[in-house]
Amino acid sequence: MNETATDANSEERPVPRMAAPLGATAAPPHPTGNDDFILRTEGLLKRFAGVAAVDHLSMTLPRKGITSIVGPNGSGKSTLINLLSGILPIDGGMVTIDGIALRAIMPSDSPTHGVTRTFQEVRLFDQMTVWDNILVTLTARSVVDSLLELTPAKYEARARELLETVGLWGKRRDLAVNLSYGQRKLLEVARALSMDVKIYLFDEPFAGLFPVMLERVKGLLNELKAQGKAIIFIEHNMDLIRALSDYIIVLDSGELLAEGEVNEVLARPEVIKAYLGT
Known about the structure:
This protein folds into two domains: about 1-115 and about 200-210 and about 230-278, P-loop containing nucleotide triphosphate hydrolases (Rossmann fold, 3-Layer(aba) Sandwich); about 120-195, no CATH class. It is of the alpha/beta class. It has helices at about 20-25, 75-85, 130-140, 145-150, 155-165, 180-195, 210-225, 240-245, 260-265, 270-275, and strands spanning about 5, 5-10, 25-30, 35-50, 50-60, 65-70, 90-95, 100, 115, 200-205, 230-235, 245-250, 255-260. It contains ten helices and 13 strands. Helix 7 (about 210-225) links the parallel strand 10 (about 200-205) and strand 11. Helix 3 crosses helix 5 (about 155-165) and helix 3 (about 130-140) runs parallel beside helix 6. The chain is globular, with a radius of gyration of 18 Å. It has a six-stranded mixed beta sheet, sandwiched between helices. Strands 3-8-7-4-5 form a five-stranded antiparallel beta sheet. Strands 1-2 form a two-stranded antiparallel sheet.
């Protein structure tokens, strides 16, 4: 699921880390210098066994719209998402999110920084119902506290809205473990949508989806865009990339190969050679 130096096809699961106090992870504010960008990396570094999966990467992400991250297998795409969301520790460099400079990001701090994400391999509470999976994220507390709380009407209304949006209202009483692969992905997307954040990171959200579900997820990403959110997604399907992307970042061997407007970047000879192999 999480890539190391070899991306999604040959992976190594990161060791979970205990959360540190927020004050220990955040550096003083460091202005980005450009209000059009919500996220910037400067010299971002991640090594596995001495091999750089993300190699001193400096890039920017637009404040609004849909950005795709592409590149050949082993280029560092999922590792980058894992660094930005705190799943993996940063070995060097800096991430600036909405003007706040961070040299470390903890998973528990991601919502505080305005970031949420999905995974290549869906992560749900399998022995909980679809309904409870949504309520846990809406109440934004521990699992036990969320389930024991007398659920306010506002949470129930929002949970119904989210499940209807992704087409899972009829499955609300089912255990998550009993959902199909596509339905599980839709539930994870709904959980991400329940977080009112500025930046949404989607790691291959379309992989394995039937056409009807694929179109539903495309619509959800466009709805987030219309709300003024920043959406970043990893994808290999060039038709989807061209149809959805306002901006594109191309990685190769953990380094930035190109970034900019999607059609212009994909037409560059170096991108064609690295990504398409011709």
